[in-house]
Specification:
Elements lengths: L5 E7 L3 E9 L5 E10 L3 E2 L2 E2 L2 H19 L5 E6 L5 E10 L9 H11 L8 E13 L2 E4 L9 E12 H13 L3 E7 H9 L2 H6 L1 E6 L4 E7 L2 E8 L3 H12 L3 H11 L12 E4 L8 E4 H24 L11 E4 L8 H9 L3 E3 L5 E3 L1 H4 L5 H19 L10 H6 L7
Parallel strand pairs: 1-6, 3-19, 6-11, 12-17, 17-18
Antiparallel strand pairs: 1-2, 2-3, 4-5, 7-10, 8-9, 8-10, 12-13, 13-14, 15-16
Helix pairs in contact: 1-3, 4-11, 6-7, 6-8, 8-9
């Protein structure tokens, strides 16, 4: 199979690494060919703390995905998270240079570059510069100004940066595994691409990717991302609470969380019970499920409250009509959607991957949302390099042309 038809996403998480290999169909959709997972101990709350352990987990996950897909890959699109991610909205202004004051693709490139020309420390790496809207002579709300007449062109953009050291260490771990990080994508964006509908982006929506070590947040409205953030808490903290509260091993706590856990005590039957193993060979004992829920609920509420506080800093956050989409591994916890509705006082739904075929578990499991979003990011990039013609494309291809020349993803 030609490499131009293959897209590989690599989700390097705090407790596991997920590799997903997909074929890009002629309609631009993804057909999943292989998924590989491997436990990981090389990251803590999204930050790489053990290079060798991370490299080994990456190698194992990709090898398993390659075996399932029956092919080999070299380049991967990898996601990055952690509390080192930062975002800011910026504006750039230029004078229109085209004949008869007509906005040209070169004007678009220059105004985006002007918007990203911030005093960013050398310790930071710019991951994405995402145009939100353009203004021509104070006329706002323009998505594609090429061909319009005007004297002044402005661009409002969302810029996402990361620790340059964190980016390089992530790339090094992948290189040690024998692969190449072709793109590094902020996890909140990747998850959003996989699960959000276009009308949700336009009406305004909060995307919460509740992973093991971190909760990644993205806020969209008017079709563009306006805020991204990372909260340094996730499902691993819930598991740890269960292990301590019930005095049971971590492995058992994780299994109990997945099989019996609930984010809201009100959803649990009072008389229901389960048997849990003891620590250090102690005898198992029975507990009621409402006791388990009473341990989980406060941590879930803390995570969601921090996310709501983050969103509350945005002007106009009360007008996010599409509400909340919850995805990620911890989204499968019973009552998670209802808990989000209660904390945010907004409608919520579970975020399942969309626009994908092939392996059934990829299409219906929020655990794979980030890996699928990363593969989606890889897919247009490969098609563009395989089929791009000389010259400057116009109209609908302008966005892809810009994406090839500036960090322009969204």
């Amino acid at each position: 199979m030609p490499s131009a038809q293959i897209a590989t996403g690599l989700d390097v998480g705090s407790t596991k690494v997920v590799a997903l290999i997909a074929e890009v169909t002629e309609h631009g959709e993804l057909r999943v060919l292989g998924i590989g997972e491997s436990p990981s101990s090389g990251l803590r709350q999204g930050n790489l703390v053990h290079l060798e352990a991370t490299a080994e987990a990456v190698r194992t996950a990709l090898a398993r995905a390659e075996k399932m897909a029956d092919l080999s890959v070299r380049d991967v699109t990898v996601g990055i998270a952690g509390d080192h991610l930062r975002s800011i909205n910026s504006r750039g202004v230029i004078a229109v240079s085209g004949r008869d004051n007509e906005v040209t693709p070169d004007d678009l490139r220059r105004v985006v570059e002007a918007a990203r020309a911030l005093a960013i420390p050398s310790s930071r790496a710019v991951l994405h510069v995402i145009p939100q809207e353009f203004l021509v002579d104070d006329q706002s709300g323009i998505k594609d100004p090429v061909g319009m007449a005007g004297v002044r062109l402005e661009a409002e953009v969302h810029i996402i940066t990361a620790s340059a050291t964190a980016v390089r260490n992530l790339e090094r771990s992948i290189e040690k595994a024998g692969y190449r990080a072709a793109q590094v994508i902020a996890v909140p964006l990747a998850s959003a691409w996989a699960v959000l509908e276009e009308d949700e982006r336009r009406l305004g929506v909060i995307l919460l990717d509740v992973g093991a070590g971190t909760t990644d947040l993205a806020v969209y409205f008017d079709g563009s991302v306006h805020h991204t953030a990372v909260i340094s808490m996730g499902g691993a903290q819930i598991t740890n609470d269960i292990a301590i509260g019930l005095r049971t091993p971590l492995e058992a706590a994780e299994r109990i969380k997945i099989e019996y856990g609930c984010a809201l005590s009100s959803l649990v039957e009072r008389d229901a019970a389960l048997e849990i193993p003891g620590v250090g060979g102690r005898a198992p004992r029975a507990i009621r499920l409402n006791v388990l829920a009473a341990i989980i609920e406060p941590r879930v509420e803390e995570i969601l409250t921090q996310a709501r506080t983050e969103v509350g800093r945005l002007q106009g956050h009360d007008f996010l009509a599409a509400g909340i989409v919850v995805t990620g591994g911890t989204a499968g916890l019973r009552g998670m959607v209802e808990a989000a509705e209660r904390v945010f006082e907004m409608p919520a739904r579970a975020g399942l991957p969309r626009g994908v075929s092939g392996l059934a578990q990829a299409a219906h499991d929020p655990r794979y949302a980030t890996a699928l979003g990363l593969a989606m990011a890889a897919a247009p990039r490969r098609r563009r390099f395989a089929g791009e013609t000389a010259g400057v494309p116009q109209g609908s291809r302008l966005r892809e042309w810009l994406r090839a020349r500036v960090p322009f993803l969204g």
